[in-house]
Amino acid sequence: MTTPAIPDARVIGGEWIHRDGDHATLTITKCHNCGSTWFPPRDVCSSCASADTEETTTADHGIAYASTVVRIGPAAFRPPYVLAYVDISDVRVLAHVDALEALPPGTPVTLRVGPIGADENGEFSSYLVAETAGGAR
Amino acid sequence: MRPVFVAGAAVHPFGKHPDLPAAELGYRAVQDLIARTGVAPEQVDTGFGGSTYGGSLLAQRVLQRVGVSGQPVFTVENACASGASAVHLGWQAIAAGTADCVIAFGTENLSAFGGGTLPLTTADLEIDQGMVMPAAYAMRAQRYLHDFGATVDDLTRVSVKNRRNGAANPRAHFQREVSPDDVEQSRPIADPLRLLHCCPNSDGAAAVLLCSEDFAKDLPTARVRMRASVVRSGRFHTSFRDMTWPDITERTAQAAYDVAGIGPADLDLVELHDAFSVAELLHAEALGIADRGQAFKAVAAGDFDRDGRVAVSPSGGLLSRGHPVGATGVTQICEAYWQLTGEAAELQVPGAEVALTHVTGGGIFGVDNGACAVHILTTT
Ligand SMILES: [Zn+2]
After folding, report:
1. Residue A2's pLDDT band (boundaries 50, 70, 90)?
2. Residues B10, B29: contact at Cβ < 8 Å?
3. Pick the CATH number of B5-113+203-223 from 3.40.50.920, 3.40.47.10, 3.40.50.360, 2.60.120.580
4. Could you give the residue numbers annotated as active site of B?
5. Per DSSP, what are the bridge partners of residue B56?
6. C-alpha atoms less than 13 angstroms from C-alpha of B307 in its C-beta half-sphere
7. Which residue, among A47, A72, A92, would best test binding to B if mutated, counting the most B CBs under 10 Å from its CB?
8. B236: which chain A residues are within 8 Å (Cβ-Cβ)?
9. Per mean pLDDT, which range of A10-24, B27-41, B360-374 is the poorest?
């Protein structure tokens, strides 16, 4: 069972995140007119401008397309931090990675919610990924 | 469309100029341009000034100081392609016959932002997740190395070549060669990129005079023909994309080749947007001057050296000149102008007759870049 999206200012993108036990999934938009998929979700397709769209939910796992360790970056994200582009259910999402090194391309990952940084009000969270235990499912 | 000519170029040297705001740098470049060409203010039909961080009415604040006021004047913002977009609008005016003489310039002061990575001001989802420009290029680099069997040494070779070129450029921010060791020992920025794989944030300005053929005949300066001027925006989507293939560069270059009737094999030199060393590999392939996945071999073989098959960034590129965002696209055209008029001094590419300039940038999510501009210039 998935819970409703998380309406919390301390969760970046929380309105599109669903917790599923230890895992998470994301709300995306599928266009019935041209087949495009979108994250973040939207009312009107940004390819064909059709409003014939549907909100759906991603899987809780995907594949790292590319990754890096950011060593010089905004203090709020506490560099060094690891980022990856993750391909998941026909969308590509930028996410923090719970790791010390960059993920090799093709690494299977699982989505969950966790802290990604801190500001004057304390830690803030978002969706993030970690290498899937035991490899691809 | 009427033929368009470049009949003058001027650059305020790039570097750290914390006490010179963008408008002052722009004024100095434009004043130099007017001194070189002898154009009177009332002869200028319209003006375009490119800048990303220079603020409202920048073009007026620059041009009114040299007597160009009252005419239509526009400030153009298109991220890294701001200056080249200003040139493009000037090209449109000359080509359409609505102007005979245009000043186009680009200017930027980045010292105002202090050190570190440039602020991304476009507030989007990826910036909220900690995206910075070096991270985007670092991931492109990781994927390029993975897909084509290149190594970090191949990225380093680009830095070494372009810094060698820039060592002879009096307008460059860095006028010193670096060794492969220097690059490998430099500070890590975003794996696999190190500091010397990244262009510096710089302050500077550049200006060109665009005009019709008749107007050019009365000027004391040499002229070159602007065969193509093309701007494209990024194609927006959030599904999978091949980050080793900057399609915005391919689309912009292809349109420019079509307009000019010139192909990549005809080019003697390219001034390319090497904001990061990996960018030279990606864009060289998308421009068609190297086969897919082969640009790193072309660099290693010396194909892109000043005396190679096609000189890539003989001025030193962004890696040497620095990157005052809005000024970069205009300074590339200035460097190409001096190459084609034989005024490039120590930077001269022997026998240069055909040049292409390429600038692309803008880190907004959902596109490979926000805006790209390609110009093709020839001696006749
Ligand atoms: Zn659609």
Report:
1. low
2. yes
3. 3.40.47.10
4. 80
5. none
6. 1
7. A72
8. 46
9. B360-374
Count of residues making up chain A: 137
Domain with CATH 3.40.47.10 in chain B: 5-113+203-223, 125-198+228-378
B195-237 tens-digit pLDDT: 999 999 999 999 999 999 999 999 999 999 999 999 999 998 9
pTM of the model: 0.96
Residue B7 backbone phi and psi in degrees, to 5: -125, 20
List Cα–Cα distances, B138 to B123, B155, B178, B366, in angstroms: 21, 11, 21, 17
Q: What's the pLDDT tens digit per position in B265-282?
A: 999 999 999 999 999 999
* Domain edges within chain A: 14-135
Tokens (6 digits) for B56: 């409202």
Cis peptide before A40 (omega within 30 of 0): yes
CA distance B40 to B34: 8
The C-alpha atoms of residue B4 and residue B100 are separated, in whole angstroms, by 9
Class of B125-198+228-378 in CATH: alpha beta
Q: What is the largest CA-CA distance in chain A?
A: 45
Distance CA B72, CA B65 (A): 15
| ipTM confidence score | 0.93
Question: For residue A38, which residues of chain B lie inside 8 Å, CB to CB?
Answer: 238
